[in-house]
Structure formats: C-alpha cells, structure tokens
Amino acid sequence: MNPKETLERLEETLDELDHASKIMPIIVEGLKDRMALRSLNVNGHVIILNDGDSVFGTCENISRKWGAAIILTDWDHKGGQLARQLMDALRACGISYDSEYRATISMLVKKDVKDVEGLPPLIRRLRTLAGSHTPIF
C-alpha cells in the first residue's frame, strides 16, 4: 500500500473511531495516548487505563456508565497483554468490546509505529509523502 492509500485508510478509521467514541469509551494505556487521539480529532470518551486503578477496577467503572467499550492499547507485546486482560475483564463485567479499531490501525501502521502516541507524527509524515497539507496539532 502506498503512503496515500495508507493515509486515506488511517484517516477513515480515525474518523469512524471518533464517531464511535461518542457512544462508548475508548480505553488507552496512558495520557500521551489520549493526547495523541485528541490531536487527531478523536474527541469522544477516552479512558486512561494506567490511572492507578486495576484493569478489573477500570472495567467495573466502565460498566457503571456504558455497555460497550473500544480497546485501543498499543500494538507492542505489553499492549497485546493489556488488550487480552481488558477483554477478559470487560467480558466478566458483562460489557461487550470492540478490538477491531486496534487491529485495523495496527495492520496499517505496525511497520512504522508501535503505539497510539506515535500516530500523529506518522500521519504528518504520510501527509507529506502523499502531498496533503492538512494540519495536525
């Protein structure tokens, strides 16, 4: 896939993620991940996993407000482990989850970045390569 195609698919996925985040939260690993999503105009509910609570505690808190959540942990080894823990904990709390955004983004960018916070610089680079000049802050 060339940079322009990758950029288009990535921007489409992020736009869909933004819409989905208005009705269910996105779970990310840390504050930098949330800031990265905000800079990419994903402005819905974003919950930080590493906020001092356990994975299960975070999922219990989510269950009080929502019936579903989006798992968007990094696509490195640790992120994969956290995603599996989240799936188990969300399931135990009776919450459905979506891990497709994580899989899609990972597939599109895995060779370039390993984490959510790496997305804004990658998109800037792809826009330069594709000749697009839409700003990312």
Account of the protein in words:
With about 140 residues, the chain is α/β, with parallel strands linked by helices. It has one domain (about 5-130): Dna Topoisomerase Vi A Subunit, Chain: A, domain 2, CATH 3.40.1360. It has helices at about 5-20, 30-40, 55-65, 75-90, 100-110, 120-130; strands at about 25-30, 45-50, 70, 95-100. Strand 3 (about 70), helix 4 (about 75-90) and strand 4 (about 95-100) form a beta-alpha-beta unit. Helix 1 runs antiparallel to helix 5, helix 1 (about 5-20) packs across helix 6 (about 120-130) and helix 3 packs across helix 4. The relative contact order is 0.20. The mean pLDDT is about 95.
Biggest β-sheet description: 4 strands, parallel
Q: Strand order, main sheet: write it out.
A: 2-1-3-4
Low-confidence stretches: none
Helix percentage range? 55-70%
Q: In CATH terms, what is the architecture?
A: 3-Layer(aba) Sandwich
**CATH class value:** Alpha Beta
Number of domains: 1
CATH fold naming: Dna Topoisomerase Vi A Subunit, Chain: A, domain 2
* CA radius of gyration: 15 Å
Order of helices and strands, N to C?
A: HEHEHEHEHH
The secondary-structure class comes to alpha/beta
> What is the 3D form?
elongated
What percent strand? 5-15%
Determine the N-to-C terminus distance. Answer: 26 Å
**E-strand count:** 4
Mean pLDDT: 93
Helical stretch tally: 6
